[in-house]
Amino acid sequence: MSEQRITSHPILEVPRRKTVGFTWNGETLEGFAGEMISSALIANDIHVFGHHPKDGSPQGIFCANGQCSQCLVMADGLPVKACMTPLKEGMAITGVEGLPELPLIREAVATGEIPTIDTEVLIIGGGPAGLSAAIELGKRGIRTLLVDDKDRLGGKLVLQTHKFFGSVADSHAGTRGFEIGRILEEELGRHQSVQVWLDTTAVGVFSDKIVGLVKGRKYYLARPQKLLVATGAREKMLAFPGNTLPGVYGAGAFQTLVNRDLVRSSRRVLIVGGGNVGLIAGYHAIQAGIEVVALIEALPEVGGYKVHADKLRRMGVPIFTRHTVVAAHGKQQVEAVTIGRLDDNWKVIEGSEKTYAVDTVLIAVGLAEVNEFYLKAKQFGMDAWCAGDAREIAEASAAMFTGKVAGFKIAKALGKETGPVPEQWNMKAEILKSRPGKPVNRPEPAAEEGVFPVFHCYQEVPCNPCTSVCPVKAVHTENDLITGLPYRDESIDCTGCLNCVAVCPGLAITLVDYRKDPENPLVTIAYEIWRTTVEVGQQVTVTDADAAVLGRYTVSKIRVKKKYPKTILVQVRMPKELAKKAAGIQVIEKQADPLATYNRQPVDDDAVVCRCERVTAGRIREAIRSGVRDMNQLKALTRAGMGACGSKTCRPMIWRIFQEEGIDPGQVTDRVDRPLFVEVPMGYFAGIEGGADNE
């Protein structure tokens, strides 16, 4: 078994899978039947899948979501996306070096019939929004077809091992993302009017109000009365020298490999971006046994929840604000990355650069809505709705509610529902989308007797599961709001049940018990990382909420609540003057030291913006400075946006360059979208199942 495989995990079960043999450029290797080709290659420590025909630059996985075509390989003689193609026994896989030659066809190709599917509602996307909408439609017996291009439902929920925020009743707070996906799928399965097509890609919306679908290897036409687009979001990218090296990819790709496919894709990673996505990805990396050398954020403060940042800090991960990437280095894949501190003008301060030896640079600098289908449907006059991240970027808990609302509205439009959307739904959706408040200082409890929880959350976020699980109703939030900070009603005796400690998504509650030894009370700390480091009798490094080390203490006991089996409750005895300060257990006890200072700041113009066509920021700036104000003209002059991904990656960066050049966005003509949003073999349109041999 390759050391790249994750064979044990603190949260995820490792399933037994069938081993199959395959070849890579003639070399015999092993993988698991049905896993994506890209995961099988990376599990065999193969990160370079080919080289770009223009400049020979190495190509590897980038989005792991079928959006970009960077992972193109030849499988049994056909060009396929490695991240979307399941591995089969005996499959012969090779890299694409240069462009494959098309076969010479000397005779007419027989065509087949294209099936047309009529349905009341078509939902594109089986993530939290799509599932929630489908459940509402299913409750009302509405004929619905839900399609998703993955092999399982859940969308990004599948990748989430952490417990969700929100409330227990409304958004399964305290339950892990992948488990929420299963809960929604089970609920959907109770409704016979909803049909689910997995491994099905929506490829385009046409003017006759037809949606093209590729299911497996066959083309279908869907004719819905109503269309709901719940296609989620794609990650934004940064332009910096070395940004296209294998090993530079987004948090979604990283989490797909680590949490869905159980492939340890990295050994040492640096994370760029301090929003919730980056903070959570760092946590997931540590759970998978990957070292996180640092997390950097360009803003003065992290944008994600403080409890997420605190978890990383307490584990020993340094977080550098006002920092950015200067360059990634390596010949065939990432070998190091240089970061630098930003001044007030967003320029790297000379001499502040530090270089770390890493094999992965994880980019988590925001998301962009995948809303092409919705915009095109509205253009063609379709009765279309949009929900989840495709409508507005927010947390998955909010996406569930926007999907729920969309399902209700569609049902009403079909005459299957009367009255307005329940006001509670809209209100809760808005609350769950709310930004975190400013951190505040909270005094520690004065009591030094009995047993009680200590709350280490200092920022208002939509989260209150601790109030739901307290058997004596002693825990409340300020003003009874879901965004209020939690507190204990001291008039009610705590039972010491540990429910609040186990359920807290931010691992921000400890329990202090003075009953047996008032001078050295028992402190219970939630822990979700490596079980082998917290055995009874071992010493652990305990930190306060700000990651300051309080000392090393011996584990007295380990508890696990039946309802929360993957959250280990570690109990240590500490001096009473420190007990209420204890907040976490340090994992990484030595911070990674940077290499020799990097003294040369590369020219930003060298950074590649269009990965597919290898167009640099300098070439785009040159065109803009010459007067170009039309994305289509820019594409014609530079080929930026002309590649296989259809400008999904480079478009946001090109808009940013226009802004950096002082151009008003209102003066710029946007691109004309392609008729198809995803590449499709020509044979499919002829009704040939599998595209025949002339793909």
Key descriptive features of the protein:
4 domains; seven-stranded mixed beta sheet; single chain; FAD/NAD(P)-binding domain; 25% strand; 21% helix; alpha/beta; 17 helices; 695 residues
Description of the structure:
- This protein is globular.
- Strand 30 and strand 31 (549-561) form a beta hairpin.
- The chain has 4 domains: 19-99 and 237-363, 3-Layer(bba) Sandwich (FAD/NAD(P)-binding domain); 116-233 and 369-432, FAD/NAD(P)-binding domain (3-Layer(bba) Sandwich), CATH 3.50.50.60; 451-585, no CATH class; 604-695, Orthogonal Bundle (Arc Repressor Mutant, subunit A).
- Helices cover 21% and strands 25% of the residues.
- Helix 2 (128-139) runs parallel beside helix 4 and helix 2 packs parallel to helix 9 (396-413).
- The model is unreliable at 597-603 (pLDDT under 50).
- It is α/β, with parallel strands linked by helices and 695 residues long.
- The longest helix has 18 residues, at 396-413.
Query: What overall geometry do the principal axes of the alpha carbons give?
Result: globular
How confident is the prediction overall: mean pLDDT? 91
Q: Major beta sheet, specifics? A: 7 strands, mixed
The CATH level-2 architecture of the largest domain is identified as 3-Layer(bba) Sandwich
CATH class of the largest domain: Alpha Beta
Class per helix and strand makeup: alpha/beta
Intertermini distance: 35 Å
CATH homologous superfamily label of the largest domain: FAD/NAD(P)-binding domain
What's the CATH topology name of the largest domain? FAD/NAD(P)-binding domain
Low-pLDDT segments, ≥5 res: 597-603
Whole-number total of structural domains:
4
Tell me how many strands there are. Answer: 35
Return Rg in Å.
26 Å
Strand content: 25-35%
Number of helices in the DSSP assignment? 17
What helical percentage do the residues reach?
A: 10-25%
